[in-house]
Write a structure and sequence with these properties.
heterodimer, A: mainly alpha, B: alpha/beta, six-stranded mixed beta sheet, four-stranded antiparallel beta sheet, 9 helices, 26% strand
């Protein structure tokens, strides 16, 4: 029974990556190998960021004979990244899966369902925390500080960190589920909790960067201070650090503590799992009161429908609309911290003209990067799921439906992106011509991002999901749209590095002009071939 | 009203519908019966414009569902066997969404929503999210949304499944009312007693092929529809 459940869970994941949605058959070996290579490339490129941090910390801490601090700090980062990456899927994976009722109706103990779901969460935690821990161990090995005993400990610690991350995300998911069971507007509360959590994560990341800068200047003193704080306030992390450095006693303590935590977490969750799944008592029935109706045009009705779907789904709201929050935050922060930023910029300006000239390009590229995080259009086709029949029987053309799906990200992105651009333009003192070019790139990119996302959404449509996390987070369309968009944003800066003889405003105008025909081609494809593909779904 | 000529649809090697020809005239309630997998849903989905067919022609009031899908869809409504309705909307939001797509005026939609929601005793639940609805409530909502634009042709796949006896009785009355006003209804059912009492005409499909069709008297004669159906199935 457990094996069958486990198989079902993995079939769902495999379906997304290794199965052709149209034929229902396993993809060709070439396609699977290509996908694995792509995943590895992304894994390696993200991991490189942590290689840099590891390089900055490894030598001073090794020679300062406080190796435990290296492993403690990298371990904390691994935990933070693991929780950040997994927490959004945990709640919906554990408690909101569409096949919950079906599984509960079968003679399967609830704890088996929970166990299988927790294994999925564990794998997600493993993947994300490994993004930090593997580079951390790799750097230490490359430096020649690793021995066999430490290596074995570090491998096991990766497993333990993933387990600890699973416990943390499950607890958070449990809290959200417990609150959501008692409130009416679940999506908003979930979104707020998530945003608070993310704010905390970014705050830590920001502090970490500040710490690394300080550490480069005054490593010994800082290390001592941090080490003392960890020893006093987060003693388990001290033990984790010691374990990573090869202390067998600490390793045993960490392993025992993690296992104990897992057992307690599992016991608590399995005791309340069925109750949470079967409880829906908190929401008070809203009585319908007849009031005057506002009619809407077909296009408005379709757009309103898309917006409702976003607002009512915390998973979609957070994953699709992350940049919508980040852009105003960047803009406001830039205005508030204007003097500090100016001081930092002056230091860079002193090093040469490139940085000064590149500021408009960096601003435009940064906004494009954040816009790439707004994955609204890519999952919108797959999210129709079993409801697809509604749009198919209504007297509205597929091209019109797709146009609404394309317009929604444009509507949502425009104001925050322009606000961010204006705020950064003022903060960095970008001149008028450059500023107009920045705005042109941002505006054109908003349209490109929507068209590119929808193009991928149609191409990689999958209506057969049982959990909305699948189309929102685990689909190839989302994957390519986000990382492809980020890659394009990066290419904008890289291009300027090679073409720095050209004034920034000219370069940005050319970039905008390149995006225009590409966007028009994508829009044309959506209108004709895309509509045809949508009708055939 | 609905003219199906030589309709064929295959899924890979399997012929789901094979050369089906049917003509449904205004004022007719046409029942469509057959065992599971006989090709009923495939036929109904093809008529509704959800499924592309390989061969044949489907005309709704003289317009082809292939060439003029929007015009055809404006004249008809479709209720699937499993009413999967947007669970991120409330009942009233869904009805307003459908009404907006059909361009129903505010006064007309209000009157129709009130009429049918009151009939099905769904009014007090209209502000509830669809996710909180039972299967029967979703079925009622799907029926109201189908009736909201006063279609001339209604296609229904197992419409009585999940309905309580009162709602089923109401639906039968509403179906008759549509046909009395010059509309037509084509629906599939496994409840042969309902088909026998309600339908003016009936078609029996087996393995994608039409076995028999005609008025109820022509098809069953003096026997019950059930015994005729079972004989035909054998």
């Amino acid at each position: 029974m457990f094996k069958a459940l486990f198989k079902k869970q993995f079939m769902e994941i495999n379906r997304m990556y290794f199965m052709d949605n149209k034929t229902g058959k396993i993809r060709s070996p070439k396609a699977i190998i290509g996908f694995i290579c792509l995943m590895l490339c992304i894994f390696v490129s993200v991991g490189f960021a942590f290689v840099g941090i590891g390089m900055a910390l490894a030598d001073p801490l090794y020679y300062g004979q406080i190796e435990w601090l290296y492993f403690a700090m990298m371990g904390m980062m691994a935990i933070a990244v693991g929780v950040f990456g997994s927490v959004f899927t945990t709640y919906s994976s554990l408690y909101l899966a569409k096949d919950n009722e079906f599984l509960l109706s079968m003679p399967i103990p609830a704890r088996h369902i929970l166990t299988v779901r927790m294994i999925t969460v564990y794998l997600s935690s493993l993947l994300y925390s490994a993004l930090v821990w593997i580079p951390a161990v790799g750097v230490y090995t490359q430096r020649g500080y690793m021995n066999a005993e430490r290596m074995i400990f570090c491998i096991v610690i990766q497993i333990l960190i993933s387990a600890f991350v699973t416990v943390l995300t499950c607890i958070l998911g449990w809290v959200i589920a417990a609150i959501a069971g008692k409130i009416k507007n679940k999506s908003i509360v979930t979104a707020i909790i998530t945003v608070v959590f993310m704010g905390g994560y970014y705050f830590i990341q920001f502090r970490l960067n500040s710490f690394l800068r300080l550490f480069a200047v005054n490593g010994g003193e800082i290390a001592e201070k941090i080490g003392k704080t960890i020893r006093v306030w987060i003693y388990p992390m001290y033990q984790l650090g010691l374990a990573g450095a090869g202390n067998a006693r600490a390793f045993a303590i960490v392993a025992a503590m993690t296992i104990a935590l897992c057992v307690i977490c599992y016991a608590v969750l399995s005791a309340s799992f069925i109750k949470i799944l079967t409880t829906n008592k908190g929401a008070k029935k809203t009585e319908y009161k007849e009031k005057s109706v506002k009619t809407a045009s077909i296009d408005t009705a379709l757009i309103k429908k898309e917006l409702k779907r976003i607002v009512k789904s915390p998973t979609y709201l957070i994953n699709g609309g992350l940049g919508l929050i980040i852009m105003p935050v960047i803009g406001i922060s830039a205005i508030i911290k204007r003097d500090d930023l100016s001081a930092i910029l002056e230091q860079y300006y002193a090093q040469g003209d490139f940085f000064k000239n590149a500021i408009p390009v960096i601003v435009a590229s940064a906004i494009c990067l954040v816009l790439s995080m707004n994955i609204i259009a890519p999952p919108s086709v797959s999210l129709e799921g079993k409801n697809i029949w509604i749009l198919q029987v209504l007297p509205v053309g597929a091209e019109r439906i797709l146009r609404a799906k394309r317009r929604v990200p444009v509507i949502l992105n425009t104001v925050p992106a322009l606000f961010c651009a204006i705020a950064l333009g003022i903060t960095f003192g970008i001149d008028v011509a450059e500023f107009i070019a920045v705005l042109a790139v941002v505006i054109v990119y908003i349209f490109f991002n929507a068209a590119f996302g929808l193009f991928l959404g149609i191409k990689k449509a999958n209506l057969g999901w049982t959990n909305e996390v699948v189309p929102i987070k685990q689909s190839m369309a989302v994957f390519i749209a986000m990382f492809g968009g980020m890659g394009i944003a990066g290419a904008v800066i890289a291009g300027y590095y090679f073409l720095q003889a050209i004034p920034a405003w000219t370069y940005l105008s050319c970039v905008a002009l390149i995006f225009v025909p590409v966007t028009l081609i994508l829009n044309r494809w959506i209108k004709y071939e895309g509509a045809e593909a949508f009708r055939a779904l | 009203m609905l003219k199906i000529t030589n309709l064929s649809k295959s899924f890979g090697e399997k012929k789901a519908v094979d050369d089906l020809t049917l003509h449904i005239r205004p004022g007719e309630i046409y029942g469509f019966i057959g065992h599971n997998g006989a090709g009923k849903t495939t036929t109904l989905k093809s008529i509704a414009g959800i499924l592309r067919f390989d061969k044949g022609e489907i005309l709704i009031n003289g317009k082809s569902i292939v060439n003029e899908p929007i015009e055809c869809k404006k004249m008809m409504a479709y209720i699937p066997d499993n009413p999967d309705i947007y669970d991120f909307m409330t009942g009233i939001q869904y009805l307003n969404f459908v009404a907006d797509i059909f361009g129903i005026s505010a006064s007309d939609r209000q009157a129709r929503i009130k009429k049918y929601a009151d009939l099905f005793e769904l009014t007090s639940d209209l502000a509830q999210p669809v996710s909180a609805y039972s299967h029967g409530m979703k079925q009622k909502l799907a029926i109201i949304s189908a009736w909201i634009h006063e279609p001339k042709l209604i296609i229904m796949d197992e419409p009585f499944v999940g309905l309580d006896p009162k709602a089923a009785h109401l639906l039968k009355g509403m179906m008759r009312e549509v046909c009395d006003n010059g509309g037509a209804i084509f629906f599939s059912t496994h409840v042969l007693e309902v088909a026998e009492k309600l339908c003016d005409k009936v078609a029996v499909i087996k393995g994608g092929k039409l076995i028999v069709s005609g008025t109820m008297e022509e098809v069953k004669g003096d026997e019950s529809l059930e015994s005729v159906f079972l004989e035909l199935e054998d």
